[in-house]
Specification:
Layout: E1 12-16, E2 23-28, H1 49-57, E3 59-64, E4 78-85, H2 87-93, H3 97-106, E5 108-112, H4 113-118
The chain binds zinc ion (ZN).
The site of zinc ion has 8 residues, from helix 1.
Length: 126
Amino acid sequence: MSTETTQRGEYVALTKCWYCGGDNEVLIHRQLRSIKGMHDKVVNKTPCTNCEQHMKRGIILIGVIEAKSGGDVENPYRSGAFVVLTESAVARLIQPKALADAVIKHRSAFIEHQALLDIGAIKQDG
Ligand SMILES: [Zn+2]
């Protein structure tokens, strides 16, 4: 490394992962137009490297609180709970079977925070 410093310009943005909220992709605008507005934002549902690994190994369940979501089913209020279960655990814990099958197919799902507690996927204080 030289003493040259790299400044984040207007043409570069680091997006956030839709699933975990962590850093996702670095975008660089081809024609050097400003994409400053995309920095720190979720811009698509492409999983970050971590979430991609989670989805290969299991199913991501994202805890939500419906009562705080204001009816937004596309992007509900998140409780902060984030768990990865195996397919067999999802098949065992989620009913009816058609719902479990759909969750397994999608590799991720929003789930009511209380339901995560009920099925023992998380503990009360974590
Ligand atoms: Zn992620």
